[in-house]
């Protein structure tokens, strides 16, 4: 083919030559690679390539012409696209493939190849034309997308799996808890219940799920207090905790129930569903009540002979002649002290039991707080020879609370301050007001409390190790104090440094200014 | 020293004995009643000036006795000091119409002072 000379078409006619040179310029300015192969020669060599093909492949023209175009595949010869191309070449057919090719420097590029035959009048395929586009960018994006998709799919599979797992996990928890659980839709229809509910209320799943709560078991769940909770309280006080409902069920009898109710506020398919957890506290209450009764009786019975003993000890003290032996006087005095101790132990025991079961009754009445504290201090002072109790400051002369309980708190704090500061001789009580709280602080210069013990001293029966042997006590004084202060809406805390002393303080909220500010 | 009579009603013998010992020393005439069912008879017979009354007693409790006394015009004004080891004692006593309350175990000096006050009033 002498018409192709160095990639240039050469014709004898000048105008044709001019047209051709325009055509070549056009081909060279294309951004697609364009080649021609001569199918009539062995192995279909490239006989023309444009500039863009050189740019795209990184090869120079002289490295291209004469080669079969497969050189672009380098060692990557097992692509299925290669087979497609071979087939198309054999069949003299058109084809479009996306094939991995490599630039001269080894860089991979994705080649979108459009190949088509050029036939002569007899239908023989003489040439092929190939148009190449570097689609690496697009391909990369596609691949990334695909990869991303794969990752996503596997994540979704994973999530679905773990969702399923956690669903199973959750439902096994729900079925295992020893508390009845009910899920209601916004119209109070029962969506689901757990096994414990079935057991406690002796019903079956079939007669419960899908039914309206109030219509369950011939309306035995149509409980006014429950209605009040669901219809009036829950809408404005979500969630509601520890709501007590007592009800006499036809078959299972009177039940005392503690309810937690939670309306789901989250947008979505669960919105406005209501979860109710029901704890059956019937038996617990009964046991608590019996224990309190028992302790009340026990303490009463213990105090009765104690009254007689105390009386006789006092009579002995009175009858004792001045001439009596000092040792004898001392023994009698000590007997009196221990009778007193026994008495307060009995009282504390009862208090603790009641506080623990929440049965401590507060008799809230207005009283002169500062006066009560002053009196309590005077009483303790009268019985304390070793320490001087110095009281200062002012809190309020009008506080609504349980005076005897508050006095008990100050007594306990003072007795500790004296007891655990044997080497000092002063205890300070400071009354003050902070914002809308009153505050009482009792400071001693005693042995102090290590930081790690400071929280635990408010626990029942906790006593600091080294103290156990040296000082009498049961370790319930501070527990009782803490509960009393909490019951009044206040807080009790300690600040202390070992060897320096301790300050026990409590605050109590003052009624919001409905009594005129003094 | 005085011709006043004090009736003590308590189901516990030890307390009756001990109170008798203390209060006789002060010169009052003491009428101990162990069974609260007999208290109305004794009141009628002995015509006491003051009653020391326990609360928790078998069959007839102190607050029941006190309520009955307060309903009866003859005994409505009779001074009564309730003595009890019950924690709710003070409230129960006040509600039933007691003139005074002392928690067991009480201080003897306090008891004697209280008795003297009541009788003087
Ligand atoms: C006009 C034309 C252009 C071609 N362009 C390319 C190309 O750019 N990249 C490539 O890998 N193969 C290209 N081929 C395909 C290879 O030349 C060859 O036909 C293919 O690898 C199949 O043959 P084989 O199995 O003998 O290698 C082209 C083929 C023709 C006819
Ligand atoms: N002012 C204080 N200084 C040092 N340690 C204290 C003080 N107050 C309390 N503690 C420590 O806290 C512990 C608990 O005190 P709490 O009053 O509860 O019980 P207790 O005094 O041991 O016995 P009781 O029940 O008779 O009061 C005490 O045993 C003591 O170790
Ligand atoms: Mg203590």
UniProtKB/TrEMBL annotation, chain B:
The keyword Magnesium does not apply. One of its GO terms (biological process) is phosphorelay signal transduction system. The modification 4-aspartylphosphate is found at residue 54. SMART domains: REC. This is Response regulator. Pfam families: Response_reg (PF00072). It comes from the Bacteria. It comes from Mucilaginibacter corticis. The keyword Lipid metabolism does not apply. Keywords: Phosphoprotein. InterPro entries: Bact_response_regulator, CheY-like_superfamily, Sig_transdc_resp-reg_receiver. The lineage of its organism: Bacteria, Pseudomonadati, Bacteroidota, Sphingobacteriia, Sphingobacteriales. Residues 5-119 form the Response regulatory domain.
């Amino acid at each position: 083919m002498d018409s192709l000379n160095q990639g240039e078409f050469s014709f004898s006619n000048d105008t044709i030559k001019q047209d051709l040179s325009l055509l070549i310029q056009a081909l060279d300015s294309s951004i697609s690679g364009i080649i021609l192969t001569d199918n009539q020669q062995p192995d279909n060599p490239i006989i023309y390539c444009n500039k863009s093909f050189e740019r795209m492949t990184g090869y120079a023209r002289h490295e291209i012409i004469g080669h079969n175009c497969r050189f672009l595949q380098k060692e990557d010869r097992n692509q299925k696209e290669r087979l497609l191309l071979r087939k198309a070449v054999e069949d003299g057919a058109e084809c479009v493939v996306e094939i991995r090719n490599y630039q001269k420097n080894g860089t991979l590029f994705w080649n979108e190849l459009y190949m088509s035959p050029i036939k002569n009048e007899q239908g023989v395929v003489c040439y092929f034309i190939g148009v190449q586009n570097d689609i690496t960018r697009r391909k990369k994006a596609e691949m990334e997308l695909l990869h991303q998709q794969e990752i996503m799919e596997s994540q979704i599979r994973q999530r679905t799996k773990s969702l399923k797992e956690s669903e199973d996990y959750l439902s096994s928890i729900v079925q295992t808890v020893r508390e009845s659980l009910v899920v209601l839709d916004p119209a109070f229809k029962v969506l689901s219940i757990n096994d414990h509910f079935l057991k406690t209320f002796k019903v079956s799943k079939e007669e419960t799920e899908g039914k309206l709560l109030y219509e369950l078991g011939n309306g035995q769940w149509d409980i006014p207090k429950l209605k009040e909770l669901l219809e009036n309280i829950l809408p404005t006080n979500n969630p509601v905790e520890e709501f007590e409902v007592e009800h006499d069920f036809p078959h299972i009898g009177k039940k005392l129930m503690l309810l937690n109710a939670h309306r789901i506020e989250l947008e979505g398919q669960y919105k406005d569903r209501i979860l109710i957890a029901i704890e059956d506290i019937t038996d617990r209450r009964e046991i608590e009540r019996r224990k309190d009764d028992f302790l009340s009786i026990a303490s009463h019975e213990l105090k009765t002979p104690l009254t007689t003993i105390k009386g006789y000890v006092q009579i002995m003290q009175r009858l004792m002649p001045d001439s009596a032996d000092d040792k004898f006087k001392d023994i009698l005095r000590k007997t009196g002290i221990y009778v007193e101790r026994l008495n307060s132990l009995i009282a504390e025991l009862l208090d603790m039991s009641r506080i623990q079961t929440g049965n401590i009754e507060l008799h809230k009445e207005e009283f002169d707080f500062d006066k009560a504290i002053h009196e309590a201090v005077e009483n303790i002072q009268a019985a304390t020879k070793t320490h001087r109790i110095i009281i200062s400051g002012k809190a309020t002369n009008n506080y609504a609370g349980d005076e005897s309980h508050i006095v008990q708190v100050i007594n306990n704090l003072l007795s500790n301050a004296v007891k655990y500061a044997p080497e000092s001789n002063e205890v300070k009580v400071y009354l003050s007001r902070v914002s809308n709280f009153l505050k009482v602080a009792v400071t001693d210069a005693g042995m102090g409390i290590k930081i790690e013990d400071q929280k635990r001293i408010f626990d029942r029966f906790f006593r600091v190790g080294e103290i156990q042997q040296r000082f009498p006590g049961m370790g319930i004084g501070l527990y009782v104090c803490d509960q009393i202060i909490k019951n009044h809406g206040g807080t009790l805390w300690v600040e202390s440094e070992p060897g320096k002393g301790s300050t026990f303080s409590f605050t109590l909220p003052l009624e919001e200014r409905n009594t005129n500010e003094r | 020293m005085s011709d006043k009579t004090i009736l003590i009603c308590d189901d516990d013998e030890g307390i009756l004995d001990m109170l008798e010992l203390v209060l006789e020393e002060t010169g009052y005439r003491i009428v101990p009643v162990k069974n609260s069912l007999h208290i109305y008879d004794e009141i009628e017979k002995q015509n006491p000036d003051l009653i020391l009354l326990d609360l928790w007693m078998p069959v007839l409790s102190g607050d029941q006795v006190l309520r009955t006394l307060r309903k009866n015009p003859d005994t409505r004004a009779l001074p009564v000091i309730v003595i009890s080891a019950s924690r709710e004692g003070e409230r129960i006593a006040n509600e039933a119409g007691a003139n005074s309350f002392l928690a067991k175990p009480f201080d003897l000096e306090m008891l004697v002072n209280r008795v003297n006050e009541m009788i003087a009033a």
